[in-house]
Structures are given as structure tokens and as C-alpha cells.
Amino acid sequence: MEIVKSDTNIDFIGWTRAAVILSLVVVVAGIVSLIVKGGPEYGIDFAGGTLIQVRFSTPVATADIRDALRNIGLGSFSVQQFGTEADEFLIRARETTGHLQQFSQRVKETLERKFGDGKLDIRRAEMVGPQVGKDLQRKGAMALLYAIIGMLIYISWRFEFRFAVGAVVALTHDVLVTLGFFSILGREIDLTSIAAFLTIIGYSLNDTIVIYDRIRENRAICPNENFSSVVNRSINETLSRTLLTSGTTLLVVGALFFLGGVIINNFAFALMVGIIAGTYSSIFVAGALVLFWEKWRPAPIKEKPPA
Q1: Strand spans (E) along 130-271
Q2: At 250, which helix (H) or strand (E)?
């Protein structure tokens, strides 16, 4: 199946400057948001504490829930509406002592005294100690770092070092863009989010490798052609495959995001942003960096041997 004609010649290289400016704006906006908020908003997995998800049979006010729980010894806690209807809430507390079932039962009994018996249901309860949360946080960051270093080594061996640098910068761009959207929209970073970031790295690399492979083939076939033309032609030749892969993947991820429920919502959101950012960076960022490297330090041309 081909949704883009083989003779298509879109001037992607001509849009490089605008694309780089757009990438910088999005990445800087995310970094500024992280700085203003004091870092990512970590979920219970990383920050430690207790989370209880409560659903009421009728809409209630956040302030009423907060007043009901104020005097039962939760310490520092917050109440956040979950979803669009005012009937489901997330209650977060720093308390990690005692048994989780007893803790959730205490919260349920307190709320039932306020709103009536049988008017609410505890849908989820999680408890993570602060030390465990910090350890998970460190391991999650190291997993991302090791994945990027592994990609750098693989592409250096598979292609050339300049291609590896371009791919790693593109991967870092995708992770920063996704992390920035999490910060701007106030979404939590949890274990499923880290799994999504690792998936994004692999997905984005796959797109980039396809384009790089075509650049290398076309460079060998047409050694005298201008390198920017080779890059642009290679992107156009792989454009149909890129759009088909990204489009079908987005359909599945979109279904997970809208229909998958709360547990995998952050995972699906990260994949949605990451797939879009990864497709964009494979076309604009990765190719632009290789082109810049070629202008700075041209590589020797290896002509394709005769058949």
C-alpha cells in the first residue's frame, strides 16, 4: 500500500530551520515548566505515600471531601478530581505507616459518615514507602540513560558515528518533548510512564534507522549528488512507510487512551505524544543533524561496486 506517490519531492530540508525553531520552542517550554514546578510531578510509585481512588454515586465537591478528611490524622494530603465528572477523586497522602487495607477502610468510613452509607466505592488503593519510591525513581532514570547509550553504540557500529549522534539527539528530543507535555499538563510520572518512554525510544529509533539506511544506499548509488538532495530524496522515498506505520500505531494508542481506563491512561498519553514527536524528529531533526555534520566534516564517499 502506498499513500504517497513514489515521485513525491517535498522539500523537507527547506523547512529545517523552521522545524528546529519549533523543536526548541517546545523543548524550552517543557524545561521552563519543569523548573517552575520544581521538577516532574511524580506519582506514588516514585514519590512514596498512599493513593486512594474514590468514586461517589452522585457528584460531590472537592472541598467537602477535604473537610471530611481533615481531622482523621492523614497528615499532608490532597484531593484531586479525576475525569470530567465530579464523582471520582484521587486522594493522596504522605502517610505510609500501617496496613493499606486499614488505611483505606478508615478513609471510606469517614467519607460515608459525611456523604451517607453506600454512596461511595474505593476503586483503587496503593501504598509505596519513600525509600522504595526513591529507588524506583533512580532505576527509572538509569533505564532511560542506558537505553540511549545502547542506541549510540549500536548505530555507531551499524552506520557511522555521525548517524549515531543524530539519532541520539532525535531520541533525546522525543523524550524531552513528552516529558515537557507531562509537566505542562500536570500529569504524573509513574512506572507506566517510564515504560512508555522506553517504548518511544525504540519506536523513534526504528523510523530513524529506516531513513538513515536509505540515505546510505542513495549516497552510494549517486556519489556525485548533493548530500542535501540525497537526504531529502531519502526522506521522500520512505515517507509512505513512515506515515502508514505512525498512523496505524496512533489508531491503536488512541483507542488505549480513550477506552483503556485510568491505569494505562498516562502510558497511552506518553505514547501518543512520543509517536508524533518521534515521526517528526525522524523526518526533520535526525536528517538535519546528519546534514549539518556533513557540511562541518564531509565523509569520504563509498561508491557502490558494479554488479
Answers
A1: 188-189
A2: helix 239-259
CB 195 within 8 A of CB 274: no
Backbone conformation region of residue 120, classed left if phi is above 0, alpha if psi is from -120 to 50, else beta: beta
The grid coordinates listed for 56 are 461517589
Q: Alpha carbon of 295 to those of 44, 118, 155, 160: distances in Å?
A: 48, 70, 20, 15
**CA 108 – CA 122 distance, rounded (Å):** 7
> CB atoms < 10 A from the CB of 127, how many?
21
Assess contact for 16 and 289: CB atoms under 8 A: no
- Specify whether the CB–CB gap between 283 and 12 falls below 8 A: yes
Nearest-CA neighbor of 287 among 233, 247, 249?
A: 233
Mean pLDDT within 26-37: 94
Question: Which is nearest to 54 in space by CA: 2, 105, 12?
Answer: 105
So what's the pLDDT on residue 127? Answer: 80
Q: Which domains does the chain have, with CATH numbers?
A: 13-42+132-296 (1.20.1640.10), 49-128 (3.30.70.3400)
Q: What is the pTM of this model?
A: 0.78
DSSP-derived 3-state class of residue 136: helix
Residue 16 binned pLDDT confidence (cut-offs 50, 70, 90): confident
pLDDT digits (tens, 9 = 90+) for 161-217: 888 888 888 888 999 999 999 999 988 888 888 888 888 888 888 888 888 888 888
DSSP H or E run through 52: strand 49-56
Phi, psi dihedrals of residue 186, rounded to the nearest 5°: 70, 30
